[in-house]
Design a protein that fits this description.
alpha/beta; Glycerol-3-phosphate (1)-acyltransferase; two-stranded parallel sheet; about 15% strand
């Protein structure tokens, strides 16, 4: 961890412990070295730092490119190795950065649903995470978050002191699909992206509170 990341990590852990009485389970399932994709459900702005502070290794986040334009915020995000995403111009550059980070042996957090839930329930998986999984060699650790929708869902203006829980599942390996993609038609490769995304979301759904 960089110094600024370590400070933020400690502060977030204190915040989640005191204000939300958080519970963490299975964090030891996250590999401490090498590339890994953390795939989590998404219900609140609380989710990214919640997953990161529950782990004991540095996590690469994704952030809107516009946030990097602010000197202080941008400096912090850069020191945290955040990945800038420009949604207006497409995600090609962000995809390259994500894959580069994984090839360098980093951990990165992705949300298969793509955006925060509107009703607290799991949404459909987007194929984007399947593409990233297929083009990398990283294992995928499913993560299930409970309570953040009730604490600070998109319908709320201020976070409430509700208990939150983050649970890590067993790592998933998709090498068999990667091998198939080397020789199958392009149409099948696109099907595999969605199939992998659906399997990742199914693994998240199986994690019980």
């Amino acid at each position: 961890m960089t110094f600024s990341y370590l400070i933020g990590w400690k502060l977030f852990r204190l915040f989640y412990s005191i204000y939300f009485r958080w519970r963490v389970s299975g964090a030891d399932k996250v590999p401490q070295t090498g590339s890994v994709i953390l795939a989590s459900n998404h219900a609140s702005f609380l989710d990214p730092p919640l997953v990161g502070s529950a782990m004991k290794r540095m996590l690469n986040y994704m952030a809107r490119e516009t946030l990097f334009r602010f000197p202080i915020v941008g400096g912090i995000l850069r020191s945290w190795n955040a990945v800038p995403l420009d949604r207006d111009r497409g995600s090609a550059s962000g995809l390259r950065i994500i894959l580069d980070r994984l090839n360098q042996g980093n951990a990165i957090l992705l949300f298969p649903e793509g955006t925060r839930t509107k009703d607290g329930k799991l949404q459909s998986a987007q194929s984007g995470i399947g593409l990233i999984v297929m083009k990398s060699n990283a294992p995928v650790v499913p993560v299930r978050i409970f309570g953040t929708y009730e604490a600070f869902g998109r319908h709320m203006k201020f976070p409430m002191p509700r208990r939150v829980t983050v649970k890590f599942g067993d790592p998933l390996n998709f090498d068999h699909y990667r091998e198939e993609a080397k020789t199958c038609p392009k149409a099948r490769v696109k099907e595999l992206y969605q199939q992998v995304a659906d399997e990742v979301l199914a693994a998240i759904a199986k994690i019980e509170k």
